[in-house]
Amino acid sequence: MKKILLLIPALLLSGCNSRKAELKIVCPTGAPAIAFYKEFHNSNFETNGVPSNIIAMMSETSDKDLVVIDTLGGIQAINKGAPYKIAASLTFGNFFIASTGNDANGQMDVGDKIVLFGQNQTPDKLFHYIYGNQYDEGIEYVGNVQDAAKCLISGKNAVTTHSIDYVFVAQPVLLNALAKNTKAAKYANIQDLYKEKSEGKELIQASIFVKNTSSKKNVDKYLTQLEKGIEEAVKNPDVITETFKGEEAEQLVSTYGADPSNFVKAIQDNNSLGLGYKKASSNKENIDAFLSLFSIEKTDEKIYY
């Protein structure tokens, strides 16, 4: 009898782990990934640095129960038939414009050289929504946020060899770049400018999408845990540090896309990482407003989890 009683806690623990492990999760590296700081040792959690690869996983034959991707890309996939629903948004903007220290008057003017990344994508659309086309003659595009950070660090665009005045960049790479170029500084908070321009709307970035055939009971339980974990991290970012204590730094960077200390610093910096959790169905107005930047009509309520 004693042996049976001793086995019960172990069986219960095993049952909890298996239920959690039943959900297969994929997430892009970067800011959204750190929302899953508790999943580092979960074999069914994976990250991917190529957004198009993640979009491709939103298929009928996919084994992914939970897919995290930029809200625009996920909703476009649903509109094309992906069997998923949007459950919640996890990041709400971590975009900034930073000055390299090269501009004599410290004011972004027509003719200044400005680096943007993501041509025709979210960063590009946001910049032009806020500023219009007045700075277009000075814009130079780079491939990704890492390339933008290199321009901020060096003050030059290595491809064009031009001296750069301002760089559109995102956290957490911004803090790392600022540490390497002591002349550089934050110039504008894109989230604040978007809110001002849109008359109070909230910028939406990454969201989590649930496959239609996934167990609702398991998903609901997991989403509750995820929300709690995110709230804990935003309130006290040191929980991330504690969670990763003793782990291999190289593996952490490989999984999350950056050194976790950079994520922690960004959250400590007035949550400039934009990390959070908001149920999508109750945030439809902000989601629709954001999608309108891309000429997408208001979302149908049936796509919400």
How is the largest sheet built, in terms of strand order? 2-1-3-10-4-11
Shape: globular
Helix/strand order, N-terminal first? HEEHEHEEEHEHEHEHEHHHHEH
Supply Rg. Answer: 21 Å
Multimeric organization: single chain
**Helix-strand category:** alpha/beta
Helix content: 40-55%
Approximate strand percentage: 15-25%
* Extended strand count: 11
C-alpha termini separation: 45 Å
Q: Uncertain spans, ≥5 residues at pLDDT below 50?
A: 1-20
Total number of helices: 12
Biggest sheet record: 6 strands, mixed
**Mean pLDDT across all residues, rounded?**
92
Tell me about this structure.
- By secondary structure, this protein is α/β, with parallel strands linked by helices.
- Helix content is 40%, strand content 18%.
- Strands 2-1-3-10-4-11 form a 6-stranded mixed sheet. Strands 7-6-8-5-9 form a 5-stranded mixed sheet, sandwiched between helices.
